[in-house]
Every structure is written in structure tokens, then in C-alpha cells.
Amino acid sequence: MNIPNASTAPAAGEYAGDEVSAIVLDPGYTTVRAGFAGEDVPKSVCPSFYGQTASGPYLFGENAIHAPVGGLDIKNYWGSDGIVEDWDTAAKLWEYAITSRLTGARPSDPARNGLNEGNDANGNGEAMDVDMDALEQNEKPLEDNPLLVTEPGWNSAKAREKYIEIAMEDWGTPAFFLQKTGVLAAFAAGKSSGIIIDVGASHTSVTPVLDGMVLRKGVQKSPLAGNFVSDQIRTSFKQSSPEIPLTPHYMIKSKTPVDAGTPAQAVYKTFPDPPTPSFRANEEERVLTEFKESVVEVWPGPGRFTTPTNEELAKSMPGRPFEMPDGWNQVFGMERFRVAEGLFDASAALPSDTFPTPPKPDHTIPRLVQAAVQQVDADQRPLLLSNIVVTGGSTLLYKFNERLNYEINAIYPSTRNKLIAPGSVVERKYAAWIGGSILASLGSFHQLWISRKEYEEHGAGIVEKRCR
Amino acid sequence: MASGRDVRDMLGLPAAGGDAPKAAGAAGTAAQAQQKRPKPAGGSRKIQGVAREVAALYGERPPPVAVYEEKKAYRAKRQSTGPAKKWIQQPFTNPARADGLVLKHWRRKPTTAPPVQESEDAPMEEGDNTETFLESCADYAKYDIKVDMPGFTDEEYDKYLRSDDWSREETDYLFEVVRDYSYRWAVIWDRYGFEPQRQLAPENANGDDQALAAMPFAPSKKRTLEDLKARFYDISAKLMKQRIPEVNMDADQYSTYEMLTKFDPVMERNRKMLATALINRTMDEVKEEEFLLTELQRINMAANRLDAEREELRARLDAPPQNQQVSAGLQAFTSSQALHALFQQLFQQDRSKKRATGGGSVPGRLSLSANDMVHTPGSAQQQLSAANRRQSLAQNQQPAAQTPVRSLSPHQEHRFNVSTHERLTSGVTFGSDRLLKMRQAKSNVQTGKISQMLAALGVADVVPIPTSKVGEVFEQLVAKVSRLLDVRKVREKEEGECKVLLAMKERRNGSGGGEERQAKSEVPDSQETPDIDVDGENEEDEDDVNKNYGDDAEGEADDNDNDNDADNPEDDAEGEEDEGGFNVEDPDDDGDVDAEGEDESSKQQSRATSQGVTTAQGHKRSASVFSQGSAQSSKRARQ
Questions:
Q1: Closest partner residue to B279 among A412, A451, A468, by Cβ?
Q2: pLDDT tens column, B222-263
Q3: Which long-range contacts (CB under 8 A, 24 or more apart) does A399-404 make?
Q4: Where are the domains of chain A?
Q5: Pick the CATH number of A226-348 from 3.40.50.1100, 3.30.230.10, 3.90.640.10, 1.20.272.10
Q6: pTM (2 d.p.)
Q7: Nearest CA in chain B to A450
Q8: Does A376 sit within 8 Å of B225, measured CB to CB?
Q9: Nearest CB partner across the interface for B76, out of A1, A381, A452
């Protein structure tokens, strides 16, 4: 009787898995996810924000960017259109995400680590030089690991080529593949066809996927996503009277409890070399994230939040308390519905001058879904509508799915619409990575990798031909 | 000493030599004695508090059945045989790849080398092994699937596949895309973007416009999915026909070919438009449809129920069941073989019959074929019955043919009072008894009414000379009388209802308190007032009826006269005339009541049952939404 245990290999046809220790990299606006294919969570989750001092090097990782150091600018390499803008930094940051937790730093080669000084003296420097050329290759961080990278559905051809160039040239990966986040999120949900609604930090995207292929005409994106909600919260704080103060954690030395609504009584830290505004903004964002997680609620329907009856109803609902880092606290009533309503109803968004683009009606999530479905062949629409995969961190807003369900059923009352939203937070936030992990660990995926040889033969253009 | 033995006992080791001498040391005999003793001692140990018979069961014998629960089997203990197995990152190639990409996956290290060598210089050995051995892992090569695509040569293209709408380049591009996306048409359409300039651009980058203008086809036409499909299927079909001529295609191929040729882009487009419209329905439309569907379902259910009820009713009315045997027999004669057998049988019978009746007169050729061949093809039924009754018929026919039957004209029949009967009841009855029986109805009241009516018509209690003719006419008369009584009863009821309804209507219309009160006071009265009215009507009615029956009575009298004369054939006509008069008069009488008039049309049915049917219909109709004009009946049903 052969009972599988830790020491026996899994049966051959058990799950068609055949791991080749591939690495999956899923860069997003707030975090970069990286990990080995075949695992169920990314081992390395690293913020996409990086610190840069005026003179010094780039600082990557949680520890670096949250330390209140003077003159530290916090930046992000993503562009406003959801495509990587700062490629140099992006490559560095991704490399950091991979090497810091997954592959580890490569041991420096013996010729230069100072341990073999004596050899040179022996006079066979010629041979060492040859070796060094060979070893030069070895220094690249991903020499042993095939790499699967995710990209947004609207990525440009140029950006795609950039990905493979970085992977092949800079990192020396033996094999590479590029896949769209939408497809991978569908895979993570166990679907090969469906509509993927991905509400991230910087962008909301709706991607129709058929048999594992993105229907390009249907891909929709809008800037109404997590950052938009944050901006709405800021605006709401400013508009309320008296203005709600937003003080990040790093400024507080100590605080004393105060009554709701009364000004905070806290002792603030003083910095000889005060941190930059960008640092403060990033730290404020963390407070807002907490606020979004614990207070903000999406009006679950039926109907929009801004109808008088619904507003009355919302008023009668119990509020949710929130305490700022400095001790200021308040119970939030219907404001908490208001700040997220803009995702579904552009006219309900609070007017804000800080958000780069004012919300358009076409940018709301229901309209995006509608536009995406419109671009798909009529025969496939019911199939897609019965597999609506919801993913992205911002979909974790309380009652988001209820509202989405209501809106979609209002648009398409005659089809069987089904939302697939994994309950666990990790699966919701890292769906694209998990899908990549599944894909790259399949035995049948071996033939899809773009090998180094193919890259050298056809150039970066091969990515357009192979990864579609 | 003892503890050591216990331990051995527990471990199931033989309590033998090895230990004992060490432990016991000195006295060999004592040790031996001790070794021998424990076993029987253990076996015959006295168990306290148990009956001797039960104790005897505690033997050394094994239990008769080995009890082994599979469910309780624990996981096999990990076998630790030797040191841990080594795993290596085995490089391998996938035969589905042309470029020979080498990937590594974890595999058990093949244990070829003897363990001694391994322990000596493991790292070197491993290094060598991985370098040399390159596995070819074909487990997943089967997933490398290429689609089948029709291909064509330039010649074929020029000859058969030219199209005004499609350039050669675009056709090639279409085929390429179809291959790339493996016939996933939705994806193909999504990605399809043929740009004629793409090929030409390098050649004349500056004179783009002119080049485009010179091109024989429109640049980057917007193709619909149906266009793409139509073109591809068209080419596929043509190529298929070229490769395999239509006549040589097998069923599968031909069905494919047919499918390809029958593709109609226009129809397909319309279908998609309909599908789109279906998806884009509004909530209201969807709800309406749902409502209609549930209604339809309900109606269907009601119809089914009604059918079942009707079926049951028919069964109760004792419709003669289909003669199973006959139909089964018919089935048996459908095949030519069976018919042939039947023919043989008949032939035999015929021959024997002919022989019995002195077949000498008839030559060899028998009448059978002439007789039966006529019957055989068309009237199987007839033939069958003939077959069934052949024997008796054959015998009966002959004497029937021999005895002369004089056929009488109807007039003569009448004159000699000859009557033919379907079947005769045995025994003798008096004609007056029959007449008397006809006067009896089921209920005494009805009987009384009938006799009253007959008295009014002037028919005597005892009809003198009750000939069969008189009996017939009397029977008709009684039938009419009872029918009339039924009609009257129904009418009374209807009118009563009308009164009540009218009263209610008045009460509803009259909003004033006084009137209401009056209406209220009327309502209890309504029990009475309609009665009075109905009575009046009835009287009138009866007058009419009396008039009618006056005629009838005259007819009757005529009849009697005729009977007495016993030669007048007109009496039948007279009677019918009466009947006609009755029919015509009746609607006139009841014309003022609508429902009655409606019912009157179905006069043939008995009154009571027809009433029942109408109300039943009313129920059914009220269930259905679509049926109209049932307002009245449904109102009645609600009442």
C-alpha cells in the first residue's frame, strides 16, 4: 500500500503539475508580488513605492520607505496610464523583490571575493580570465529560474518588449513568459472564460477572457479605483466642519484619549530633518487604507445611494467609529457610503481638485462592464456573464460585491449573472499571482515558455507573437 | 527475571535461550523448569467469578473468525529503509519544443552507483551525473496540439477561390489568424486587424495615399465575424470538394461539407441581432415574459387536468373499449408473410368447404381468389372478420340463400304490421304496461308533473288499444314532456339568479342610504319575489307549452286516428313536424334570457348536464387569461 506522504512523489497524472522552479512576478501599483510557481501565496510582497534620497541610492522594501528620514522622496514607478513609466527603477525594484526573499543574493564569484588571491600569484591568470567570462553570466539573478511576469491588459507592445528585455538581458532568465493579469485571475478562480473585474489601487479594469485569451477590444480601464476612494475620503475630511485632521502615525509620540469629535491631544514628534511631503502623503495613505478597511462601506443597493430614500435609510443605519493615530475619533454615518459611491455613480463623487481626472460616467464599474460586454461576440456574452471574476484589493470594500451584483443584474436582467469572488483576502488580492503560479507549474506549460534561444533568434518582438 | 519474561512476552519473542542463561546464571535445571512452567501456568490460570463453561472458552484456540476492520487500518508506518533518498534537479527537454530548452525539475536520484562510492565523494559524483544525463520528458508533449487547416496552392487559389471582396493577402492573413487562434472565432474576430499597408509600407512609404488608391480593394475593411466565417467556410468547402468529390464523401465528410456550404452570413447576423436584443431586454420585459411563462404553464396544467377529467368521464360513460384482439390481430397481418399464411388458411377452408358441398360441379379453379382477393388489400377489417367467422358464415350463408325472403315495401310492412327488430326480448308483455311504465319518472314529484302535463294535454290515464305505434308516439310525447320540464326547471333557476343579480346591481348603483336599505330589505325578499315572477313566467310558459301541446295533442289524436286506420304513413311526418314546432317555439319562449338562449343551442343534451358543463367551462375559462367573452360565466362562477 503506497500512501503518499512527504517522501513519495505525487502520482504522475495527479494534477499535471511539473514544477521547474519558475518564478512568478506580479507587479502592481501598491505592491509587487513575487514567488515560486506552485506555491499558493507569493513569498515576497514588496511595496511598489520606493524611497530616493537626494544623493543616495534607491531604497526598497517596507522598512526603508516607512522610516521617517529627512530628504527621502517616496516615488512610484507606475505611470498614470497604468503602464510602467520608470523602467530602470522598476527593474531594480522587481529584482529586489525577487532576490531579497526568493533566490537570495548570489555568492560573488571566487575570483573576486578575495579568498583566492593566492591563485593569481601562481600565475594562471589566463585561465581565470576565461572562467570569469563564464562566471559573468552566473551573476545574473535569475540564471536558474524561468520567469513569468504579469502585465495589465492594455499594455503597449513596446512595454511588453521591455519586459522580456529586462528578463533576458538583465536577469539572464533561461525562459520567459508574459501573461495578462485578467487571464491569470480567471485561472486562479478556476475559469478559462469570464469577465474579470479588477479593482486595484490606481486602476479599475474589466477584461473579457475567452478560453484563456483576452478579448482585446473589450478591455476597459478607468482610474476610479482604490486611490480614487482615498482621494474621496480626503476630500470628505476637508469638507466636513470642522475639518477632520489626518495625522499619520510617524508624527505621534504619545496620545491621550479624547471624546468623539473633540480635537486631539497628542504629543507630536519633532524631526530635526523633517520628512518630505511625499513621505507624509504615503504615510497618510496608510491611515486611509485602514479607514477604508474598517469604515468605508459601499451602498449595497437596491438603487443608488444618492436617492433621497436611500440616504434617509443610510442615515438611520448605525455609524462606525474610527480613531485617528493622534486620538481624534468620530462615528462616521452616511459619509462612509458617500466616499465609495463614486465607483458606481460618477455624479455622486465628491468634487475634488486633487484627483487628476474628474470621474466620468463612462468610468464607473457598471458602465465598464457594459462596454466590455458590448465588444464581445453576442454568442459569448451569456457565457462571460455567468463567470464574472472579482479581484483586486479594492473589491474588499465592505458590501462591494452586493452592489456590483445589483448593478450587473440591473443591466442584464435576462442572463444568469454570477459573481465569483473568492472569500479569502489573499486570494482576492493576489489572484493574478496565484493564477500565474498555477500556470507556470503546469507540465503542459513547458512548451509555451519563450526560451533564451528563441529570444536571441527572433529578438524582443517574439513576445508579441507568443504571448497573446 | 519475571519482568524480563514479561517483556519478551509482550514483544512476541520466543522465550528461549539467549537471555535466560545470562539472567539465571547458576542453576540450569531451575531455569529450565521455570521456562517450562510459565506457559501452562498462563493457560490454566484460574479466572475468578466466571462460570466454568465460560472460562473454558478462554482457550488457546484462536477465535473462529478473524475480525479485521479495514476502516481502522492506520497509515502504513513509514519504512525507514536506509538513508534518505536523494533528489536532484533533473534537467530535461520537452520534445514538443523545437529549440531544445532545458528546464530542471526535481526527480529521485537514480540509484545506480553503489552506496560505498557515494559516501566517498558525493559532490563530484552528483555533478557528473547531472551534467551527463539529460532526460527527455514526453509526459506533456501530448498537449502540443496543432489544429487541422485546409491548405491551398496558388493555382487552386486562382482557379477556385478568387473573390472580389477578398484579396489574396487578406485571405492568407485570415488563414493565419484562424490557425493561430485555433478556430476560436470570437477571439479571431477580436484580434483580426488586417492592414494591407503593412506589407506595402516599406516599399512606398511616402506615396502611401496613391498606393492605397491604386489598390484594387478597400484598405482595412471592417469585417464582421460573419464575413470572416463566410469566407473561411466557403474556401474550406471548395477545397474539400476539390480534394474529395462529393460522391466519394462518407457521411461525416458530407455532413461537414453540407454545414460549410450552408453557412448563411445574413441569417447568422440576424440571429445574433436577436440574441443581442434578448440580452439587452429591460427588467420590465423580462418580468413580463416571466409572468407570461408562468401563465402558460398554468394554462397547460389546467388543460392537462381537463383532458384527464374528460378521459375519465369517457371511461365512465362506458365507451366500448377498442377490441384489443382485433387490433392485435390486424397488427399480426401487416407483414406479407402473415398475409400469405392467412391466404393459405383461407384457401384450405375454401377447398374443404367446396369439397363438402360436392365440389364436383365446380372445376379446379376455385372462387376463393376471386372472392378474397377483392377483400384482401383494402378492407383488412372485413377480411379479418370474415376469417374469424368463416366457419359459421360458410355454413349459414348457404341455407340463408336457399330460403326465399320476401322483401316488403315500407307501405306493405306498415299495412301488415310487420316489424323487424334488432333483438327481441323473450316473453310476452302488454302494450298498456309499457305505456304505464313510461309515465313513471324517477321521483314522485316528476311523475306527478308528467301526469299533470299529460292530463292537461288531454291524454287519458289509460290509453285504449295500445298498439306499438301508439306506444312509440306516446314514448316521444313523454320524452318531450320530460325535456320540457327540465327546461323549465333550469329557466326558473336562471331567472332567480337574474333577479338576485339585478337586485345586487341596483343596490350597488343606488348609493343613497334609503335605497340601500330598500335593496337590503329586498335581498331577503329576493327569495320570494323571483319566485313569484318565475311563477308568472311559468304560467305564461305553460300557456305556450299548452298551445304547443295542443298541437301535439292534435297530432296525437291524429296518430290515434291513424293508428286506428293503421294505414296512414303521414303520421311520422306529422310527429316530426311537431318536433320541429317545438324546437322553433322554445327559443322564442326563452329568448329573453340570454344565458338560456345560449344554452338553448345545445338542446340535444339534457338540461341538467348541460348546466353542469357550462359552469365547469366557466371555471376553466376563469383560469385562462386569454379566453374572452366569459365575463358572464366567470361572474356566475364567482357567485
A1: A412
A2: 888 898 999 999 999 888 888 888 788 888 888 888 888 888
A3: A399/A297, A399/A298, A399/A299, A399/A300, A400/A199, A400/A298, A400/A340, A402/A298, A402/A300, A402/A301, A403/A298, A403/A299, A403/A300, A403/A301, A403/A344, A404/A197, A404/A344, A404/A365, A404/A366
A4: 226-348
A5: 3.90.640.10
A6: 0.61
A7: B101
A8: no
A9: A1
